[in-house]
Design brief:
35% of the residues lie in helices and 27% in strands. By secondary structure, the chain is α+β, with helices and mostly antiparallel strands. The chain has a three-stranded antiparallel sheet. A hairpin with a 3-residue loop joins strand 1 and strand 2. It starts with 10 loop residues before the first strand and ends in a 9-residue tail after the last helix. InterPro entries: Rv2632c-like, Rv2632c-like_sf. This is DUF1876 domain-containing protein.
Length: 92
């Protein structure tokens, strides 16, 4: 089977941080012009070392996980709309 790349997606991650909290926003713009956005967060325990990169990794991973779930839900809804019936749930 030969596969050809016909489209690419770029996911953007942005972070806001203070000494205790990291918030992440993940955004993907789809070829049809729609956008899917998701959020993640991390909280540093007061006894943990201040490692901003770790907070970004946790908050970013949580935002990407939510983004994946939103994309699955969007695809599931589009399948149902196109077929006129309720399809089987899509699992990751």
């Amino acid at each position: 089977m030969t596969m050809h790349t016909t489209v690419g997606w770029h996911v953007e991650l942005e972070f806001q941080e203070d000494d205790q909290h990291t918030k992440a926003v993940a955004l993907v713009r789809l070829p049809d012009g729609s956008e899917v956005r998701a959020h993640g967060h991390a909280t540093r325990h007061r006894t943990d070392a201040n490692q901003p990169r770790v907070g970004e990794e946790i908050a970013g991973a949580r935002a990407l996980n939510e983004l994946a779930m939103r994309l699955l839900t969007k695809a599931h809804d589009e399948i149902d709309q196109a077929s006129g019936r309720t399809s089987h749930p899509i699992h990751i």
